[in-house]
Write a structure and sequence with these properties.
The protein is 41% helix and 17% strand. The protein has 397 residues and is an alpha/beta fold.
Length: 397
């Protein structure tokens, strides 16, 4: 199977051809948005970060913003700074350039204010837009796809309908030589042994078990119970974190696990990878896009409208009530599995077909509506990293 995408100079393939305007700090967000609003097919990654960061927190912000700016769906990235922040536009742009994505940066203080910055930014971005418009989609195999797996608003239907159907599509992409990323490690609780057995390296299996145990124990010392499920999950019929976790991991099918990556880290080679991220929907999608995912499947039992500016998000539900109430936000209706009109396997093939259609340019509903939610996971700052051994800290650094 093939899809039609945009070839990048570094060998990656985009399913969108965007110009990214990235404020390095909250203070430059308005100017960045004004630039993006003036250039077709440009997106602004507005955020409240960029000032007062240090250590692991600073690295997390830089890695995530630069990862988004170098996603294959981005033709070029303009980083807009204020000029006095410690997450500088220069640093982010330099990190983006390492991947081979065209990039530049401007600072409001050096340009002489908002209006001059916007004018200069529009000039740069329009030039890139003209270049990007000259590119045409070409045929590529599924080995060029990086798929992110997300779920939110999970209920009793998620783990038996939508999630395993996505797992069928996930396995197909892995078999074709593609890459799949499963985040939400707090939602692996209770399934550690199952995941460990799927790891190609026994050391990674041991790491999964130790990581979850250590993290939940450290959280408990500070008064957090990471084994609790959300009130919405309970209303939806879930009873324990283990039940929720079984559904979560079913999105990743049955493929062998290549290893673990940290938040926003790009997988080093194809296959199924686990991303250490706690299961916060918008933060997860940001991390997946920063890790290079061109498309994300998002299963939801109770419904959620969120999307991503860089990465198309495909919504799937198996709950008939959700289709009735929130059908305007859902791309794929898996409820026919409940009625027996579809099987997990047959609907999983439809999920794969939808992924390819979106890769070919079909807009998702979240894209059509304009959902571009954005947040970066900063939870590690809440915990005492001294309580984690060296082999764990790389995931929180």
């Amino acid at each position: 199977m093939e899809f039609q995408g945009y070839e990048r100079e570094n060998g990656s393939v985009g399913v969108r051809n965007l110009i990214a305007i990235i404020p390095s700090v909250v203070c430059s967000s308005h100017a960045a948005k004004k630039i993006a609003d003036s250039v077709p097919e440009s997106v602004c990654l507005t955020h409240p970060y960029g000032c007062g960061h240090f250590g692991a927190d600073w690295r997390r912000i830089v890695n995530t913003l630069s990862g988004l700016g170098s996603n294959p769906n981005v033709y070029a990235s303009l980083v807009v700074g204020l000029g006095c922040e410690n997450v500088t536009a220069r640093v982010i742009s330099q990190e983006i350039a390492k991947v081979g994505t065209p990039t530049s940066f401007i600072d409001i203080q050096k340009e002489g204010g908002t209006l001059k910055t916007v004018n200069r930014g529009v000039e740069i971005a329009k030039k890139w837009r003209e270049e990007a418009n000259k590119l045409h989609r070409k045929s590529f195999g599924l080995e060029k796809l990086v798929l992110g797996l997300e779920c939110g608003g999970s209920d009793a239907t998620s783990g038996i309908i939508a999630n395993p159907a996505v797992g069928v599509a996930s396995d197909a992409i892995v078999r074709a030589g593609g890459t799949v990323i499963l985040p939400e490690f707090i939602e692996w609780v209770g399934t550690e042994q199952m995941l460990a057995k799927r790891c190609i390296n026994p050391e990674d299996g041991e790491l999964i078990i130790e990581l979850i145990n250590t993290f939940t124990n450290e959280a408990q010392k500070q008064g957090y119970n990471m084994r609790m499920i959300a009130p919405g999950n309970i209303r939806g019929g879930l009873t324990t974190i283990e039940e929720k976790s079984l559904g979560t991991i079913s999105k990743a099918g049955k493929a062998p696990i290549q290893g673990l990556i940290s938040y926003s880290e790009k997988p080093p080679h194809p296959g199924l990878w686990l991303m250490v991220e706690p299961g916060l929907d918008v933060e997860s999608m940001t991390g997946l896009a920063a890790a290079g995912a061109q498309i994300c499947t998002f299963t939801t039992g109770q419904g959620t409208p969120t999307g991503n500016a860089i990465m198309p998000v495909i919504k799937v539900t198996g709950n008939p009530e959700t289709m009735d109430v929130m059908g305007d936000d859902i791309d794929l209706d898996a409820t026919r599995i409940i009625t027996g009109e579809e099987t997990i396997e047959s609907f999983g093939q439809k999920v794969l077909e939808e992924i390819i259609a979106v890769a070919n340019g079909k807009p998702t509903i979240a894209e059509q509506i304009g959902h571009q939610e954005f947040a970066i996971w900063r939870m590690p700052m809440m915990f005492n990293l001294a309580g984690l051994s060296q082999k764990f800290t790389r995931f929180f650094d």
